Amino acid sequence: MISAGPFPLMALIAALAALVGWAFARALVPAAGGLRGRAGAVVLDALLLGVLGARVAHVVLHAPDYLAGPLAIIRLGDGGYLPWAGVAVALAYALWATRRQLPRKPVLLGLFASGALWLVAAMAVFAVQRSTIALPLDVALADVHGKAVPLSAHAGKPLVLNLWASWCGPCRREMPALVEAQRAHPQIGFVFANQGEEMADVAAYLAQTRLEADNVLLDADSLLMQRTGARALPTTLFFGGDGRLRGVHMGELSRAGLQARLRELE
């Protein structure tokens, strides 16, 4: 798995893109005049404000999703950005910051270089993910009663595949939101595939928490982690009705972050 949720590879790509934009803007400004440092700083400031603007616009647009858990607003790795709002904020700031002495063209070209690099890299990462991770329809797992349930039973409809364990704190914290979403979105399949635990442990956890989740399955050999390339728990994979990967999130999902993912499946 190349992109594994909150901040791994995509954060690194974003940092690299920002560095390229900073260097590009500086290189285009003449050394004389002492404006090189200022040009690079404006590019970085514009990029940061653009990210914040995209986040704020998304939160405002989907405010009801954040009312139940306002702290999710600052979880930037949880997903949820409005790209065009971010672009508008970044450009507006860049135009304002270059209204006097600072050359405008180098700053705008630096922003363009950053955005283009990030976009191309992000598309490449997702293309690799989609080509290497598919819904493993040939896998059959046992339910809490020991009955074999093939994942092929969910073919033809969007599916949320959650890899979890009862000893995993983030798994336990996100589970209520996932169960609520399962009830609220009957058109989307949900599979909670426990990784590596015994049936008795899973049954005890469900009884203790009183979670009424459907499709809780046991993957005693952690086969799905191997097949999907997941390296940590929880990992949640989102598949379209065609069985192709639409998104991956490693780490705890907030309710707001989950709703953003589900909207992409509907």
Overall body shape:
elongated
Give the radius of gyration. 22 Å
Provide the β-strand percentage band: 5-15%
Major sheet characteristics:
7 strands, mixed
Mean pLDDT: 89
CATH superfamily placement of the largest domain? Glutaredoxin
CATH topology group of the largest domain: Glutaredoxin
- The number of distinct β-strands equals 7
Instruction: Determine the N-to-C terminus distance.
Output: 24 Å
Organism: Stenotrophomonas daejeonensis
Protein name: Thioredoxin domain-containing protein
Transmembrane segments: 6-29, 41-61, 81-98, 107-128
Keywords: Cytochrome c-type biogenesis, Disulfide bond, Membrane, Redox-active center, Transmembrane, Transmembrane helix
